[in-house]
Amino acid sequence: MILIVLGCGLLSVTAWLLLRWRIVKSYWAKRNVPHNPPHPIVGSLDFLFKENAVFWMRKIYNEFKSPYVGVWLFWRPALIINCPELARRVLVKDADNFKNKLISSGRTDPIGQLNLFTVNDPLWTSLRRRLNVIFTGAKLRSVHNIYSDKAKDLVTRIESDIRQKKLINLRSLFSDYTTDVFGDSAFGVSSTATITGDSPLRRVTSDFTKFSMFRGLSWTSIFFMPELVDYFGFSFFPKSTITYLRKVFRSVVQQREQNKMDHGEIRDMLDVLLKMKQEAKIDGEEISEDLLLAQAAIFLQGGFDTSAVNLTFTIYELAHQPLIQEKLYAELFEAQQKANGELDSTILAELSYLNAVLEETLRKYPPLGFLDRIALKDYKIDDNLIIPAGTPIYVNAAGLQMDPNLFPEPEKFIPERFLPEHNSVKPYTHMPFGEGPRHCIGKRFAYQTLRYGLSKVLLSFEVRPLPNSPLPNDCHIDARSMLMMPDEVMSVEFINRKAKTA
């Protein structure tokens, strides 16, 4: 009898799954949306751990040449947007319907759950409004000394490595620099990684980027199947990392609260968080330590590695493009002479070729290949398609940025396309920091970190390719990563300009 009941139950479950699968796999076909057939388990995510997400997005863009493409996140239908006009509508014009994201780190990870990158409305609106204070131009200029001092340390470190004839791992070098910059700004902690190659905070950021199967499954679930996050105990940050950051955060907060911020100005992100806590208390609200720590943690994690990788790809490209390198050096040298030797954030922001070089790196090597949103209400894409509330949307930034109709010869590194006088970049085709209300709040901070680091290095050193090193387009990209990261050590030869002219 028991076997009969079990058999009937198994048949019922199997029949339900088969019926459900028929509905799932026919979802986009019934709506006449271009698509590839889904895998019966992972849907369209069968590229994971085999192909970088940026390349997957580009492949979809090139295969269909369609304004939108249907995909499945496991069994959940989602829509990829390949059209600048649709991108504008989703990200800007109709942004109120796309405030939220599918991404979530679940209830078991409060630091991952409460940060500005993953949190949804209404908390997102409140956090965003308060945090906007720190990222104005005036506030960024107030942390000039952090950028400047760490960029000088970067030069000192390279000079030391040259004397010791070390092979310089670009990503490791620039990760040391960006850890110091973002760590000092977010946690008020002075780190010496740029000079020494090591510090307690640098060991923490190194853990961020270490791959394991568990971390890979965690990120897959957080981005594409958040329902699994709580079930399996996945987390956005490694638990050991949170333990350390919480300890540091409490110590520094205690020091500043004792001083009662009597310096009279907001110096960094930590001051903003403390001010946010004070204002909430006046309003009769209570802001938890986890909420404050979450913002500092995502600022550090979200900024240090993407900025370091951008500098890595930029220096590597310039080593293989001597004419571009010389043109950039000439602009920097002239600006330095006019400024009596010291380039500040205002001057750097106005250097058109420097900014064009950075934009071209971001175009060719986007940190993340898509901008994700989720529809709050049913939404009309066009006369042929209405997507229901809850449908995830992915704007295909990686595909747009490599479209030869939008960016001629996209595989080539051509900074001139971003010069103001050319005015050749169409709106919503180049979105390295997103667009609309939910664009990356740390955009200006990241640009300043890149400008200071790149300008100091190029004013001090000429960079050349090492013998037998691969061309930029032949470098291996980590297939396991959601982000566009190198899968090998990238190095160049640094030649001290002072020694060269001596």
Structure description:
It is globular and about 90 Å long. The longest helix is centred in the middle third of the chain and has 32 residues, at 289-320. The protein has a single domain, classed as Cytochrome p450 (Orthogonal Bundle). It is of the alpha+beta class and 502 residues long. The protein is built from 22 helices and 8 strands. It has helices at residues 2-25, 27-30, 53-64, 84-93, 110-113, 123-131, 137-141, 144-163, 170-187, 193-196, 200-209, 213-224, 227-232, 239-259, 269-282, 289-320, 322-338, 345-349, 352-364, 397-400, 443-460, 497-501; strands at residues 68-73, 76-81, 371-374, 379-382, 385-387, 392-395, 461-465, 492-496. The strands form 3 sheets. The protein has a 4-stranded mixed beta sheet, sandwiched between helices. Strands 4-5 form a two-stranded antiparallel ribbon. The protein has a two-stranded antiparallel sheet with strand order 7-8. A hairpin with a 2-residue loop joins β1 and β2. Its EC number is 1.14.14.1.
Quick take:
Belongs to the cytochrome P450 family. The chain has 502 residues and is α+β, with helices and mostly antiparallel strands.
